[in-house]
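job 3f2a | input accepted
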Amino acid sequence: MKNLRPRLKDQRGFNLIELMIVIAIIGLLIGVGSIAWGAMIRSGNEAAAITSLDRIRTFQAQFASRNRGKFATFDQLITAAGLSEGFAGERPVVNGYIYTLTVEESSASRPGFFSVNADPQVPTGVTATGSRFFYTDSSIGTTKSNDTQPAKAEDPSL
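job 3f2a | predicted structure (158 res):
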């Protein structure tokens, strides 16, 4: 028994300050990682929005070519062209972006027209789903972008 006590006295572990330093370093790594993770999610949402606008523009052109220049709503594109089911409804939210589709019928003086806006659901802050606003329509062959407000046809192309 006397031999056991000196051995226990020589064993040492971590003290409270060392444990607190390790916990602080782990917390710092988690904080930096979560900021980078949020930026990666926003970037992915923006890339998905641009791709979705390109696909919608393509589907609208295909639909119009089969329907004498008439453009479709989101629901019509889902059934006729194979647009994702996530775009069902009036203002669908897909990958953190709110999509708004405006369709104008053709008249004697001008052809039919459509425009699509993709606006971030949460544009600012830590929980932002995107930081850029996007736009496309039937008269342009590209996607327009704006960093501060909903994009329009006059904004610069990507």
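job 3f2a | Residues 16 and 22 are 10 Å apart (CA to CA).
job 3f2a | closed
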